[in-house]
Design goal:
The protein is about 30% helix and about 15% strand. It is an alpha+beta fold. Strand 5 and strand 6 form a beta hairpin. The chain has one domain: Glutaredoxin (3-Layer(aba) Sandwich), CATH 3.40.30.10. Pfam families: GSHPx. One of its GO terms (molecular function) is peroxidase activity. This is Glutathione peroxidase.
Length: about 180
């Protein structure tokens, strides 16, 4: 696979979505969860979407329950939660795995293109995540795996994965990078 447009993903209703349909758009691909400390980032993601969708931004949410089972509901329950609680109007895809043997091929590709670059250890959240993950795996930082919910990947209009942002990076912090690509 050469770029993101080579992938098809499952929609909430079970249908398939060709990412080629988004060719020419700037994409922000996010693994999400409904019961996570980062769940309020849906507000920031929706704000970015509303502000930039007419200029060519598309956000795609992919629920995942691999991190502390923080999205245990059905696709329908997750979609209703996102729409009703946070007013999410960008597309939410079917629940997936982002790591392991059953990882969604799109996320395998995203991780190959933009590996983990570390947490900001100048923040409390960054330090806490580093401590927690180091206990389970002292080499965690050398692996490209998704570390938690709300990891974000930015894709340019040509389908190239240009940046990865870890969960504690708020959506508003991506605005300048998005504007450069639009």
């Amino acid at each position: 696979m050469k770029n993101i447009y080579d992938f098809r993903v499952e929609k909430m209703d079970g249908g398939k979505q060709a990412l080629k349909d988004y060719e020419g758009k700037v994409l922000l691909v996010v693994n999400t969860a409904s019961k996570c400390g980062f769940t309020p980032q849906f507000d920031g993601l929706e704000a970015l979407y509303e502000k930039y969708k007419d200029q060519g931004l598309m956000i795609l949410g992919f629920p995942c329950t691999q991190f502390a089972n923080q999205d245990p509901g059905s696709n329908e329950e997750i979609e209703n939660f996102c729409r009703l609680t946070y007013g999410v109007s960008f597309p939410m895809m079917a629940k997936i795995d982002v790591n392991g043997d059953n990882a969604e091929p799109l996320f395998v590709f995203l991780k190959e293109q933009q590996g983990f670059r570390g947490f900001d250890l100048n923040t409390e959240k960054g330090k806490a995540f580093d401590e927690r993950l180091s206990k389970d795996d002292p080499d965690y930082a050398q692996k490209s795996d998704i570390k938690w919910n709300f990891t974000k990947f930015l894709v340019d209009r040509d389908g190239n994965v240009v940046a990865r942002y870890e969960p504690m990076v708020e959506p508003a912090a991506l605005e300048k990078d998005i504007e450069r690509l639009l």
